[in-house]
């Protein structure tokens, strides 16, 4: 795995060597706790092994779904609130140029990604539906519990729109 290098050369004008050495002890302890799962809250650190230890079959299913959406949709509506949508938003933000989402369809390599389900504003949903227009769209619902009110409302609205546009069976694929 590629290693991340921390270049603190410029910090040396402000922080003395002995201060950095003191911090090293703390860094070593935290590093060991994270790697060995011995620290407080270690049950929440499964993400550390994600780059190498993950469900490969599930990953393949996600990649196949992404390819299908890229081939048949101009818009992907990501429904979720809080941590359940900010992960995808962060990944999209760091992988794309800033205004990628605002480019015309023929200048974007991937579908426009729009977000829903993070409020109960009917105006927001109406505006979003207007932006989608008559373009083909897909929906990705992200919810750990499946019971959160805001995404549950958005899911019902977009499920209805998908069924009206593609029929009950077509809406599922
Ligand atoms: O993923 P769920 O179950 O819809 O829950 C969403 C909630 O979970 C959190 O992501 C974390 O508690 C909140 O920010 C958000 O309101």
From TrEMBL:
UniProt cross-references to PROSITE patterns, sorted A to Z: P_GLUCOSE_ISOMERASE_3 (PS51463)
Keywords: Gluconeogenesis, Glycolysis, Isomerase
Gene3D superfamilies: Glucose-6-phosphate isomerase like protein, domain 1
SUPFAM superfamilies per record: SIS domain
Enzyme Commission number: 5.3.1.9
Domain of life from the UniProt record: Bacteria
Top EC class for this record: isomerase
Single GO MF descriptor: glucose-6-phosphate isomerase activity
InterPro entries named in the record: G6P_Isomerase, SIS_dom_sf
Protein name as annotated: Glucose-6-phosphate isomerase
Source species: Periweissella ghanensis
């Amino acid at each position: 795995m590629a290693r991340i290098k921390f270049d603190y050369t410029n910090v040396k004008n402000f922080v003395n060597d002995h201060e950095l050495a003191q911090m090293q002890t703390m860094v070593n302890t935290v590093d060991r706790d994270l790697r060995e799962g011995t620290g407080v809250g270690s049950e929440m650190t499964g993400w550390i092994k994600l780059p190498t230890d993950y469900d490969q079959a599930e990953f393949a299913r996600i990649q196949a779904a992404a390819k299908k959406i890229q081939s048949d949709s101009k818009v992907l509506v990501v429904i979720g609130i809080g941590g359940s949508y900010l992960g995808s938003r962060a990944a999209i933000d760091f992988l794309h140029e800033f205004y990628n989402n605002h480019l015309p369809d023929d200048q974007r390599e991937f579908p426009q990604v729009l977000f829903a389900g993070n409020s109960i504003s009917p105006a927001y949903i109406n505006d979003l539906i207007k932006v989608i227009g008559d373009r083909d769209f897909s929906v990705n619902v992200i919810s750990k519990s499946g019971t959160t009110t805001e995404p549950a409302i958005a899911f019902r609205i977009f499920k209805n729109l998908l069924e009206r546009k593609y029929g009950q069976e077509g809406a599922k694929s």
